[in-house]
Specification:
It contains four helices and six strands; from the N terminus they run H-E-H-E-H-E-E-E-E-H. It has one domain: Glutaredoxin (3-Layer(aba) Sandwich), CATH 3.40.30. The protein is α+β, with helices and mostly antiparallel strands.
Length: 103
């Protein structure tokens, strides 16, 4: 994603990531991948559910499944992607094309 960051910025696309892991895991991910965009940490299940994320269970613990959104400037959702595996993730090039064509 980082290699696309500049191109996304040119289209005024902002990236914000979030996860349910704690601060130390998030900081490590941020540093290891030299990311320029913010990552929220410790996102509670209640917030994930408000976003429409799927919440499952693994080893007796609630687990938020990956989800992605393209949100318009007015706060409405233009596109969303939900997945339970590594398949079906939004690709930066597709996001750029979508924004140019529809937003």
């Amino acid at each position: 994603m980082e290699e696309w960051f500049e191109r996304l910025q040119e289209l005024d696309i902002k990236i914000v990531a979030g996860n349910t892991d704690g601060d130390s895991d998030t900081a490590e991910t941020h540093a290891n991948h030299d990311l320029s965009f913010p990552i929220a940490h410790s996102v509670p299940v209640e917030i994930a559910e408000k976003l429409g994320a799927w919440v499952g269970e693994r080893q007796g613990k609630a687990m938020v499944q990956p989800c992605e959104f393209v949100i318009r400037a007015d706060g409405t959702v233009a596109a969303s992607m939900y997945t339970t595996t590594q398949l079906g993730r939004m690709k930066p090039e597709e996001i750029c094309n979508f924004v140019k064509a529809r937003i």
